[in-house]
Amino acid sequence: MEQPCAKTHARLDSWCAPGGVLDAGGDRASFRLYADDPSRRHTRAAIVDAYLAEQDGIDRDGRCAIVTAGVPGAGKSSAIESRGLAGKGWRVLDSDRIKDHLIRDGLDRGVYDDLLDVVLPDGRRLRPRELATLVHRESTQILDTVQEHCIEAGENIVIEGTFRWDGLGAQLLTELGGAGYTELTIVDVEVTCETALHRAQHRWWSGRIDPDNELGGRFTPTTAITDLYPHGSARSICARNARAAFDHPLSAVIESVTLFVDDFTTGTHVESTTTKHNGVVDYTSGHDD
What we know:
Number of domains: 1
CATH superfamily: P-loop containing nucleotide triphosphate hydrolases
Shape: globular
Number of helices: 11
Structural class: alpha/beta
Strand order of the largest sheet: 2-3-1-4-5-6-7
CATH topology: Rossmann fold
Oligomer: single chain
Radius of gyration: 20 Å
Helix content: 40-55%
Number of strands: 7
Largest sheet: 7 strands, mixed
Order of helices and strands: HHHEHEHHHEHEHHHEEE
Distance between the termini: 34 Å
Strand content: 15-25%
């Protein structure tokens, strides 16, 4: 990585650390700024409505769900596209898009004007999407509301996430099964930590230096990736949690469950597919430990 990029990345990384100006749990985080503001619920409701309005023609008959697993920068969206798993008629649930709404709200209110005036080591000012950590927690709260609405409506949904939390599988199986969903597909994409870091930094830097990109590149703190890799493991905890969800007894409440794994950690692409119906595994191809 060239020096201006590396120095700028290091500066932002330090700001995202606990106690830094971009600390996700710090005083400048949006969930703290508006903790005592009762009118904030109206802003959140407006963002929910705006997000839902971004897509139309959503199918509600299939009651199918796709959930991604894998670290930031792994290539999860590409894996869904390459398999033709979703497209028109599917609602995509993506916290990064919620973050953009919250960042624009912050720009309109001017609450981060002082930060956006700061010049970083590459000679450019802080870009709006580099504030993403400050709206992270509120974005997940809003996305939870959107997801609840979509599941209650029986929409075909793509839940884009990492599967970093080991309790997510049981929660999703309970919510989807309780709403009558009949098909769940889990797509796990595994890359090495080095690959994920490189991709995340490249994506951020490309957006940062693009003058036509209104909000710039979204910065991903290094620890948001490295913390997902157990010591000495080439595969992330996301793989373990995805497999645990597939194996969970609650998976029997959903008629059809499929686990796709794209593993690039050995330098070659290793694919595996496992399916079960009514809780019983009936097809396995490839190899997935």
